[in-house]
Amino acid sequence: MPDSEEIDGDVYVSPRYLADSTAVGDPALEPLLTLGFDLRHDDLGSAYVTAPDRRVRLGFLPEGDDDGLWRINAYRGRW
Questions:
Q1: Which of 18, 22, 53, 67 could form a disulfide bond with 60, CB atoms 3.0-4.6 angstroms apart?
Q2: 34-65 pLDDT, tens per residue?
Q3: Is residue 21 part of a domain?
Q4: Is the peptide bond between 15 and the residue preceding it cis, with omega within 30 degrees of 0?
């Protein structure tokens, strides 16, 4: 990872199972749920977890030609 605080481009997750599906009990989301993140789903099959202080949000969007897209948003303050 570069020394810069800004990441421009794709971020690859290893081991790959951490970037897998959002099924119930998913190993990628379980640590966040244990920390109190709120889990929500939408009608398109996307899953989102939000930090208790609302400064970090992670989402899985099941779209595209591959298995889906993980999106991570971080904010300086509550959104």
A1: 22
A2: 999 999 888 877 888 999 999 999 888 877 66
A3: yes
A4: yes
